[in-house]
Input
Amino acid sequence: MRSIFNMFGPSPIRPIEQHMRKTYLCAKQLCPFFEAVFNQDWQAASLIKDKIVAIEKEADLIKRDLRLHLPTGLFLPVSRTDLLELLSAQDRIANKAEDIASLIVSREMIIPKALSSLFMPFLNRCLDAAHQACKAINELDELLETGFRGSEVKVVEEMIVTLDEIEQDSDEKLAEIRHRIFELEKDLPAIEVIFLYKLVQWIGDLADHAQTVGGRLQILIAR
Output
């Protein structure tokens, strides 16, 4: 089947998988980044932020190349529009990771120690969602070989169910950390409170965007 597809033009599946791996690589830099932030090591944080920006640019190059060279008449069991929407969903993860790191470094934003016990588990759970989305997208090759049918579809659907469960768990952790910020409001400057709420929402968006990737993949399978 793969050889038949190659007769009608290059398959976009491999670049989409590469883009998703690059996107996840970008997001997971937030783990060492926030370790530096909690230590108020702004030199290390700035260096990691620069790395995030560089990886996001690499992901953008893959995205742009795929958009420019994706033929309109692909002989594939999926539509061009669905593939482009999947690509856009993936792209939002890397963009949000860059936004988070840039916000923190530009303000030299200090995370209150009272949030530390909740913060890293919340961040890690959101990154778990991005990782699960990456694992699911890496099954696209196998889905293509089976014509989006058979046991491989069940494997990917189970991955998407797990992704949804991770995202729901991240939502619960987001609610917990918001409540903790609320308890700290009276002891913090108002502007810092505003940015803390924005920060945790943006981190939660990582899991939301990862779930969207899973949803777009599910649409590919369904159609």
